[in-house]
Amino acid sequence: MSRKRPTENPEQNDLALVLTSEDEILFTRSEKNLVDIGYYGAHDPRTRPTRREIHIGKAAGITKITLEAPERLGLPSITDHKFWDGFTELCYEKRTREGIVTNPIKFTGAQLLAKMQRPRNGESYGDISTWGQRLNSTTIITSGPAAIYHKRQKAFIETSEHLFTKFTRAKGEKSGNQHNTVYSVELVSWALDNLNDMYVIRKDAAAQRKLQRSMAFSLFNALHIWFYASKGAPIERDYSGVCNRFGVPEYKYKAKIEDTMGRSLDELQSIGYLAKWSVVRMSSKDGFKVCMEAGLELLRILRMNQKRVLEDSNGRTVTIEDSPVMLDLLALGISKSVAVELQKLGTEEEMLDRIDYVNSLIAKKGDALHNPAGFAISALRDGVVVPHGFVTSRKRREIVEKNRLEREKQQQELLTTLAYAEWCQDRVTEAIKLRFTGEELEVAAKAKLPQMLADYPTLRRVDRTKQLETARKVLEREIRDELNLPTEDQWGEMDKFKNVQASLFVLEGEKPVAPVC
């Protein structure tokens, strides 16, 4: 696809000079947190570093992010970032078809390699496995007032998890003489939610592919966030902080900095993402800072990523980011101007259902359909009717949300039960301390033992320590019965306990285990 180049005039840094149409750009996406914290380092992957501490200044203070990985694999690098971009695009295709991305996310090796434009050979498949294992074994540990942003919760959260909580590989259906390799990924919850909620940067895939240096690749992604925050104004970055964020060696001399990081900055300038750059000694402390001005190509992308105001079928003012109909139409490859027209043909619910059905028709036709976007436009303009038995993604989302709420309800009920059990245990413990000293409790337990052995002969088979332990538990149960404690429902209605939750329990998988009482 041909691409127009912006007018070569470094003195004019005006967004109005951008000439290329958005419809000519192939966009790819990256989750913002991973870019912001420098999750994918610019280091040489052959060095396999196993730990990096990243310090990021925020308005609320300094945030420290620690990345830890096993020595066998090392920390994620730019190669892993490229796989992540391809994986993200597969996720958004799934989101377009089904309305939501849920765990586990399954894909074939052929699908991922096609997104990355890599050959289907043993080396490529081996790289997929290494990538999955690395993201499944690298721990992200955050501490500080502003660590990982969770868009759905509209809050910063702390985490100590892996990006991939599970990664598996298996043989799929046979194609010709070979079996397709199928991969299954489970994403950590905040990353999955952020992908569904479009907490991503959109970037020009063609421009990204022109970059040869790892540091240029890292900076390419970060520039979208830095210049978006500055609204396109020139920025300055502490050289030491940039090296720390992306895991590259830090040099003390200006000439060496210009000869190393400077080469990556030159690459970014050559593709129009920087207008100019310089390395300047800082006046406030020892060290250097990198001063950068945004190029026309970057400003063009930032302009396209800004929220655009639209009007929906009910006359409400919305933005593309807030309009699921627009997002789904754009995902079909329909131009923005036509999408604005089509989204007015029905209510939001009607259009989402129709787009779902059209997507299913496109999937059935497969390679026989040469112009999916044209087919979709024609079907929607003709008022395609969704069959009664067709399960739409909106309905699937409702089911997923219903199941989520039910799980949360069950979890809350379980936590309440655990909290009640802890409260009862505390009352019993207090009563025992009032009635017995440590020696008296032991004497009372031994006094119960003969009757228990008579009533339960099988108790004779265990050793003396277990027998006494059982006797103490029986004694605790009798004391609890004497206390006439409220039932769980009565306890829950008591004002001081309405919001109490369990504080002491052990997790086995996802099921909390209550303490013995």
| First-last Cα distance | 71 Å
Residue share in helices? 40-55%
Count helical runs. 18
Report the β-strand fraction as a percent range. Answer: 15-25%
Task: Extract low-pLDDT stretches.
Answer: 1-23, 309-313, 502-517
**Mean pLDDT score, rounded?**
79
- The chain-level structural class is alpha+beta
Number-wise, the strands total 18
General form: globular
Largest sheet entry: 4 strands, antiparallel
Taking all Cα atoms into account, the compactness measure Rg is 30 Å
How many domain modules?
A: 3
Strand order across the biggest sheet? 2-3-5-8
Q: Concise description?
A:
The protein has helices at residues 32-36, 78-98, 109-116, 122-137, 189-196, 205-209, 214-229, 239-246, 254-270, 296-305, 324-331, 336-342, 348-365, 372-381, 393-435, 438-455, 464-483, 488-493, and strands spanning 27-31, 51-58, 61-68, 105-108, 139-143, 148-150, 155-157, 160-162, 164-175, 178-187, 200-204, 235-238, 274-281, 288-294, 309-311, 317-319, 506-508, 511-513.
Protein traits:
three-stranded antiparallel sheet, 19% strand, 517 residues, disordered C terminus, alpha+beta, 3 domains, single chain, four-stranded antiparallel sheet, disordered N terminus, 47% helix
Write the layout of secondary structure elements.
Layout: E1 27-31, H1 32-36, E2 51-58, E3 61-68, H2 78-98, E4 105-108, H3 109-116, H4 122-137, E5 139-143, E6 148-150, E7 155-157, E8 160-162, E9 164-175, E10 178-187, H5 189-196, E11 200-204, H6 205-209, H7 214-229, E12 235-238, H8 239-246, H9 254-270, E13 274-281, E14 288-294, H10 296-305, E15 309-311, E16 317-319, H11 324-331, H12 336-342, H13 348-365, H14 372-381, H15 393-435, H16 438-455, H17 464-483, H18 488-493, E17 506-508, E18 511-513
Antiparallel strand pairs: 1-11, 2-3, 3-5, 4-10, 5-8, 6-7, 9-10, 12-14, 13-14, 15-16, 17-18
